[in-house]
Write a structure and sequence with these properties.
By secondary structure, the chain is α/β, with parallel strands linked by helices. The chain has 18 helices and 13 strands. The longest helix has about 30 residues. It binds uridine-5'-diphosphate-glucuronic acid. The site of uridine-5'-diphosphate-glucuronic acid has 20 residues, from helix 9.
Length: about 475
Amino acid sequence: MAVIALKCPHIEVAVVDISVPRINAWNSDQLPIYEPGLEDIVKQCRGKNLFFSTDVEKHVREADIVFVSVNTPTKTTGLGAGKAADLTYWESAARMIADVSASDKIVVEKSTVPVKTAEAIEKILMHNSKGIKFQILSNPEFLAEGTAIADLFNPDRVLIGGRETPEGFNAVQTLKEVYANWVPEDQIITTNLWSAELSKLAANAFLAQRISSVNAMSALCESTGADVTQVAYAVGTDSRIGPKFLNASVGFGGSCFQKDILNLVYICQCNGLPEVAEYWKQVIKINDYQKNRFVNRIVSSMFNTVSNKKVAILGFAFKKDTGDTRETPAIDVCKGLLGDKAQISIYDPQVTEEQIQRDLAMKKFDWDHPLHLQPMSPTTVKQVSVKWDAYEATKDAHAVCVLTEWDEFKSLDYQKIFDNMQKPAFIFDGRNVLNVDKLREIGFIVYSIGKPLDAWLKDMPAFV
Ligand code: UGA
């Protein structure tokens, strides 16, 4: 919305939320999320044509176009638990829009939702419309965190789905004109509603599948002595495959990939396509396998126990340049190590101690509810400490694990880190960002995903 405000000075954008602290933060100097480049844009537009408000009803009533970007968590109970999307927040947003509206509106689905949600929302709006006309559009977002602003300035494509009726086409055209202020028209794709909704799930499933494919190869590389970086490079030079998104890692995280694939799996099952469901489920299974494999590698290398050993975790966010920890592989790795009674010391340049404690205490999927509805565990995890410096976190540690590819981890003084650690000193690089040869020269025992193994690690096979 900030980018729309920047690129369309003639459009007034109001961002509304029922959370007072969140809106206050958007109106302050300390924005509630870290995203490179966002602060500048917000400061440039705020108070001119970009407003943040808790007066939801007023702004919805006045708007011509309403973008709905509410949470769509994975259901934890009831029908479809663990797979289906919980549309409670979407449904109440639709009811509120119907309630307060006094003029015709275009309602845009911006949250990623299961296919055919638009139809359900349309029904709610139509049955409560008091004669007002609503057009529903699906306009899924393809930006990635950490590069959001660049992605929005220069998107590969913008996708708009709508009803194939004259009113539907008009609504699509109206939204297209908003994006056409900065996106070339041939990059604005228009489809029917269901294609737009499904394309979003499909795009994320394909992206996640690439990571699971390369991660599956990483396991085979370790067993055979091949190097996954070399394999990925060789594979990616085929122009039909392409070089991007082939970095082996400890596993993918983030708020979207797993949730969207679970959704896709559920939709396939509901449509009587169990083989298709099973096919996509494997992408998640390999991701879970990769995280388990990483934990097992740590434990087995360290004489099959990390009980009371200090393990330093560098990076907790699900990727670099974000403070977002939703579904970060660090949660599963830390929980795995805690299960083996390790003492964990964590440093991440953007994630707070409060967030880390909440993540490690929270049940799966609970993160996707608004803060005030998240069940809070009263206990903090005592074996976990959070430091504001990598040297502090690694002091006296038996092992260091790199779980986020923050640039600053590449240029740390690893000699100094080694000197202050217990011996033998281990490094487990879950992002393949460190200079393995240099670390070995210093004296570390190094494990790097999908790379030829140290003699030490070969002697201590990890079993999943
Ligand atoms: C992802 C998609 O890339 C966006 O196109 C989409 O709009 C977004 O989900 C969404 O649905 O909202 P995001 O989750 O922000 O974006 O970040 P990604 O860059 O896709 O990374 C996801 C995870 O995959 C991270 O944990 C990252 O470290 C991991 N990853 C990525 C790898 O392990 N290897 C790679 O080669 C690339």
